[in-house]
Specification:
The protein is mainly alpha-helical. It folds into 3 domains: 31 residues; 106 residues; 65 residues.
Length: 224
Amino acid sequence: MIVLCAVIGGVIGTVRMGNLAWGMMSAAAAGMCPVFYLRALRRKRLAKFSEQFPEALDMMTRALRTGYAVGAAFQLVAEDMPEPLATEFKRVFEQMALGRPTTEALKEMHDRINTEDVRFFYIAVGIQREVGGNLAEILEKLAVVVRERYKLLAFAEVLSAQQRLSAYCVGASPFVAALALNFMRPGWFEPVWAWPYGMYVVIAGAVWMAVGFLILKRIANITI
């Protein structure tokens, strides 16, 4: 899909702009579309998993207190909770049913769902397996911690939403303005491409803009 989008974008850019340089930039931009789409799906799935995770911990706590084994508690969550959480817990239960240690199965789930909440869960269960303790009580307290952390993170994202949107607008404005000028007045950038160093200047500017955008995004990325 990346290659297909890049080819289509390159052909459209070259034909519409009449310049190979614009075609190359169009191909690069179009080729990244599937990557951005998959990243958006991943963020959406992780966000949904994090939202459902406290409910799964509560369900496991109730199951353990009523006499269920740990594997049966995972199975109960896999059967009663919606996607995507059900699939991940089902994988853990199936691995445990085949004789895989619980900590190893949870470690693989953490590798797939690389969030702080799953890491807390994996570490808490691992410690309980090694030193003992009341797993139901541990999961109950962990559910409270995860809920409060989720609320605090959501509040922080709301507070930083304006700054993040401003960063997106500032980062996209030069490219949008360049495309608008080229559509309204074809040939506007011909002196740049005719200059021997024009392409290098444009590429250098785009690279430094991308670096600045990544730095701003890193600053605005709040971790709790």
